[in-house]
Amino acid sequence: MKRIAFFPGSFDPITKGHEDIVRRAIPMYDEIIVALGVNSSKNYMFSFEQRLKWIEDTFTDCPNIKVISYEGLTIDACKKYNAKFILRGLRNSNDYEYEKSIAMMNLALAPVIETVYLNTRPEWSAISSTIIRDIIKNQGNSEAFLASGVQL
Ligand code: ADP
């Protein structure tokens, strides 16, 4: 059976930190699904189409990476795509506490799906999509922090 990992997020926009986590996980899985979560009650800076395109453009060189979007519970989307692992990146202890509660709930709802974490590289651990959006809003240069497929 193929080992499939699901990397969910809002990617508003996709950053060097996201890209690094996915690329480092490539040797661990047969396929990684980078999944753009759609939450209709959330306000995004970049459109759905734009965020999806940037993710696709970031991983065009990676045949084992598939880019999709989904609505609803992450575990339901994992089941749909036959993914037994949810991949997440950890920047600091706040991320850990937050991720841990989601992972515990997901494990209770879907015991066959495991959440797997990779620590962020130190050089990308201060990057968040929120800070990048702030830089962009204030006409700063965020290029160094954006994933390779992002063209502002
Ligand atoms: P969400 O809306 O689920 O928080 P994000 O797009 O912000 O989605 O993040 C998706 C995943 O990427 C999460 O596991 C998050 O911890 C991780 N992540 C976010 N920023 C970084 C970073 N700079 N380095 C590594 N992982 C990151």
The CATH topology comes to Rossmann fold
What gross morphology would you assign? Answer: globular
- Percent of residues in β-strands: 15-25%
Most strands sheet = 5 strands, parallel
| Contiguous runs where pLDDT drops below 50 for at least 5 residues | none
Provide the helix percentage.
25-40%
- DSSP helical segment count: 5
Average the pLDDT over all residues and give the rounded result. Answer: 97
* SSE ordering: EHEHEHEHEH
**Oligomeric assembly:** single chain
| DSSP strand tally | 5
Bound molecules: adenosine-5'-diphosphate
CATH architecture: 3-Layer(aba) Sandwich
- Which class in CATH terms? Alpha Beta
| Strands in their spatial order, largest beta sheet | 3-2-1-4-5
The N- to C-terminal Cα distance equals: 40 Å
Sheet/helix structural class: alpha/beta
Give the CATH superfamily: HUPs
Structure in words:
The structure is a single chain. With 152 residues, this protein is of the alpha/beta class. It has helices at residues 16-25, 48-58, 74-80, 93-109, 129-137; strands at 4-9, 31-38, 65-71, 85-90, 114-119. The chain has five helices and five strands; from the N terminus they run βαβαβαβαβα. A five-stranded parallel sheet has the order 3-2-1-4-5, sandwiched between helices. The longest helix has 17 residues, at 93-109. Bound molecules: adenosine-5'-diphosphate (ADP). The site of adenosine-5'-diphosphate has 16 residues, from helix 1 and strand 4.
